[in-house]
Amino acid sequence: MKITGVEAMYLRLPQVRELCDSGQDALIIKVLTDEGITGIGEVDSAPLAVKGAIDGPFSHTTACGLREIVLGEDPFQTEYLWHKMYRQSIYGGRRGAGLHAISGIDMALWDIKGKALGLPVWKLLGGGFHQRIRPYASTLFGATPEETGERARCFRDRGFTAVKFGWEPMGQDEKTDIGLVREARKGLGDDADLMIDAGLVWDAKTAIQRARAFSDYRIFWLEEPLLPDDYDGYAKLSRATDVRIAAGEEESNRHSFIELMDRGQIDVVQVDLTRVGGFTEAMKIASLAFDRGIPVVNHGFTTYVNVAAALHFLNSIPNSFILEFVVEEQTTLRDCITKQKIVARDGYLDIPSAPGLGIDLNEDGIAKYRVA
Ligand SMILES: [Mg+2]
Question: What's this model's pTM, rounded to 2 decimal places?
């Protein structure tokens, strides 16, 4: 089998609101082959920067568009192709958009392998740790503490046993910050797990104060309170509190995760398959985390392509236990661009059994929202 094409499709809602909701647009990758099998991937990043990293021409031997690097190659050689892409795009790649672009192609290659062999990706990765996995509802805070409490009650009534609230208005002032967490806990009741995603808003000392205050409301983890490069701040915070500290969604490739784990001393590693370098790199990160006794969760706030990929990944590693499942109300794009919609059943998500990722694109939906 040979790769005959790579397509990076930019989809966007006609109205994009100024919110930290990355489900309002999407970059979907297709890898085509001479045997008629098409692999699907996704990248959650700066969409047109990633599209450029894929579509770009050969500039020189360490600055080449990814399409050109993989054309004519065998899609089964995922490890070899990952390194070929990494080496030949290393000037603009390594971290950030260049690595994000590799992620989308790597994901599509694993989809092709699964489809060709008639096996789900988790089986190719040697997995099988779960029959089903518990999702946590992942959402933004309400505009006020009270609104956050109402949202929490809604998710509890929908059967979620774990909920994460994130980003604005966290970080405005101490009273609001604590009010948001207090009302979230009140709305959820005593039994559900509550995660708090601060959204990169504090310095280390403020984060330590907040972690202490939030522990009165038994939060399961505190996510990304600091800027991602503040490794020493993460270490200070981690030493000062019993609250689990989670981070990783800003990272691409294993070297950044090693810094977060060894220098930053984080407690939960968050891997976004559309950013870290796809399945090929994510498995290595999970293994590094396992060796350090650290659990791994997915990060995903975009489409069911990413959710499906996360299900395969988390089913393939020993240190997984819960899955981020976005429940934002503005789901137009997510619900229109794939044939399958992934839903929780009795509070759990089933592990997919169809070949590849087990997700098919809805071409009408893609055409409706495609802008580049
Ligand atoms: Mg987050």
Answer: 0.97
